[in-house]
């Protein structure tokens, strides 16, 4: 008789298994350290928000709101959405905490899953994960430059190769309306060459046409006016100051006059980060300034700047350059009576800061050693009947693949064993 078929994961949703998740944790730990040095504090945000939060923040006519959000009705009739991004949620938290009402400066960083119903592709899924920062209460160019310097330093530290910073400006409420109208007039003159989505974008938000990926649309809009040529004096001054500060710090960037972030709330500085080795979908993250979003969501006029990195893309770009922590020792009890001593030794070694694999008893020595090698332990402590009788475990070096053994006492603090493991690792690293 056949059993029931297994239940597969939902399309676009996937498991992040240990080899990859260990890398994610290292990337996140490195980012947390870098962010803390720049005075960013961690915040944990809910996965579900009221749908109106994203409709108001991301903007009607955006692909995210119109096509990609996972929205459902709660039992009380409230429309809820799985968050497609975290900036709007961070703004809500900033306001709801009372910090926004006081216009107080605040710096947050976050990590977690986001949800968009997009076409799955390499490094891009319907449940994806972001690592990001948001800074509230400061509108000076030095803030933009400081955070960009921090971001580029983080990418360098985790050894992402061939990083490219595309930098532009989206203007503000003083200069963008006139530019939007110029762009709309130009796009309507090429309307016959544009796709149906761009026809809709022209009615709701003409800037979105520059974000279209359809080749015929991109060709038709190749000569469209760009925002950088229509900045007002304050926006031009802000952008020039950001560029000057980046250049003083040796941060290389490329001017991106056609850069349009996919969300409506951005103003002035906008940027995108790409990396080599990722193929056509080479974007790792992006962000910029969004000075009007807090006010648009019912708060005071508080400036803000932030960015988000995609963990899936970041892991692909940095995966070959970030080394995982391998077990220092595998504890291998060869007889049932060794289970208690094995657990005690493992506990003491872990308390001393070592990574330890503890195998259960009941298998042959060959099987236990095969398991220890598969888990890439650097050494093994063998606990059989003879070792228990003598009160001394046998340590086998697994790195060199030779039968090198040392007899070590199973004393209360395992000090000698810890010292041997560390000296062994030092020799291997030196070699």
Give the helix/strand layout.
Layout: H1 18-37, E1 41-42, E2 48-50, H2 51-58, H3 63-68, E3 70-73, E4 79-82, H4 87-96, E5 106-115, E6 127-136, H5 141-157, E7 164-169, H6 176-189, H7 196-204, H8 215-220, H9 233-248, E8 254-255, E9 267-274, E10 283-289, H10 293-296, E11 304-310, H11 311-318, E12 329-333, H12 339-351, E13 356-358, H13 365-374, E14 379-383, H14 385-390, E15 392-397, E16 405-409, H15 415-430
Mind explaining what this structure looks like?
- The protein is α+β, with helices and mostly antiparallel strands and 431 residues long.
- It folds into two domains: 18-175 and 231-318, BirA Bifunctional Protein, domain 2; 329-430, 3-Layer(aba) Sandwich (Rossmann fold).
- Helices cover 38% and strands 20% of the residues.
- It is built from 15 helices and 16 strands.
- It has helices at 18-37, 51-58, 63-68, 87-96, 141-157, 176-189, 196-204, 215-220, 233-248, 293-296, 311-318, 339-351, 365-374, 385-390, 415-430, and strands spanning 41-42, 48-50, 70-73, 79-82, 106-115, 127-136, 164-169, 254-255, 267-274, 283-289, 304-310, 329-333, 356-358, 379-383, 392-397, 405-409.
- An eight-stranded mixed beta sheet has the order 1-5-6-11-10-9-7-8, sandwiched between helices. It has a five-stranded mixed beta sheet with strand order 13-12-14-15-16, sandwiched between helices. Strands 2-4-3 form a three-stranded antiparallel beta sheet.
- Helix 12 links the parallel strand 12 (329-333) and strand 13.
- Helix 5 runs parallel beside helix 9 (233-248).
- The longest helix is centred in the N-terminal third of the chain and has 20 residues, at 18-37.
- The chain is elongated and about 90 Å long.
- The protein starts with 17 loop residues before the first helix and ends with a helix.
- The relative contact order is 0.12.
- The model has no long low-confidence stretch (mean pLDDT 87).
């Amino acid at each position: 008789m056949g059993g029931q078929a297994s239940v597969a994961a939902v399309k676009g949703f996937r498991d992040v298994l240990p080899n990859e998740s260990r890398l994610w944790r290292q990337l996140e730990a490195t980012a947390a350290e870098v962010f803390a040095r720049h005075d960013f504090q961690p915040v944990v945000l809910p996965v579900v928000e009221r749908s109106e939060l994203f409709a108001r923040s991301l903007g009607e006519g955006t692909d995210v709101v119109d096509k990609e959000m996972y929205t459902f009705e709660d039992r009380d009739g409230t429309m809820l959405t799985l968050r497609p991004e975290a900036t709007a949620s961070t703004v809500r938290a900033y306001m709801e905490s009372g910090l926004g009402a006081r216009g107080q400066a605040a710096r947050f960083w976050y990590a977690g899953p986001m949800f968009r119903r997009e076409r799955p592709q390499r490094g891009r899924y319907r449940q994806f994960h972001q690592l990001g920062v948001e800074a509230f209460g400061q509108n000076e160019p030095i803030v933009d430059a400081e955070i960009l310097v921090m971001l580029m330093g983080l990418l360098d530290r985790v050894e992402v190769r061939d990083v490219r910073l595309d930098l532009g400006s989206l203007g503000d409420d003083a200069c963008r309306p006139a530019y939007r109208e110029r762009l709309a007039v130009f796009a309507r003159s090429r309307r016959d060459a544009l796709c149906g989505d761009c026809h809709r974008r022209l009615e709701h938000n003409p800037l979105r046409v520059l974000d279209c990926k359809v080749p015929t649309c991109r060709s038709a809009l190749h000569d469209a006016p760009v925002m950088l040529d229509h900045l007002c004096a304050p926006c031009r001054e802000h952008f020039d100051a950001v560029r000057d500060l980046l250049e003083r710090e040796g941060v290389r960037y490329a001017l991106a006059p056609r850069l349009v972030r996919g969300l409506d709330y951005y103003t002035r500085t906008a940027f995108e980060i790409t990396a080599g080795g990722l193929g056509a979908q080479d974007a790792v993250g992006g962000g910029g300034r969004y000075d009007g979003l807090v006010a648009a969501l019912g708060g005071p006029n508080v400036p803000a700047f932030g960015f988000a990195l995609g963990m899936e893309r970041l892991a692909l770009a940095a995966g070959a350059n970030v080394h995982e922590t391998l077990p220092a020792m595998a504890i291998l009890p060869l007889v049932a009576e060794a289970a208690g001593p094995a657990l005690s030794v493992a506990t003491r070694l872990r308390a001393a800061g070592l990574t330890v694999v503890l195998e259960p008893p009941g298998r042959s020595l060959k099987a236990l050693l095969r398991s220890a090698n598969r888990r890439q332990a650097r050494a093994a402590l063998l606990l059989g009947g003879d070792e228990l009788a003598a009160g001394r475990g046998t340590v086998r070096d697994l790195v060199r693949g030779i039968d090198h053994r040392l007899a070590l006492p199973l004393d209360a603090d395992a000090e000698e064993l810890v010292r041997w493991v560390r000296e062994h690792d030092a020799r291997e690293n030196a070699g």
